[in-house]
Amino acid sequence: SRLVEEYSEICIQQLRNSPSTVICLDDYVEARGNDIARSKRWAGKKKDYLDVWKNKLASRFGSFNLRTCTDSSVFEDAMEEMTHHKRQKRSWKEGECKYWFILHDILDFAVNDGLLVSNPLVDINNKCRKLASTDASKFMARRGLDFDERQRLFAESLSSEDSGVPPAIRFQLLTGLTV
Question: pTM to 2 decimals?
Answer without folding.
Answer: 0.67
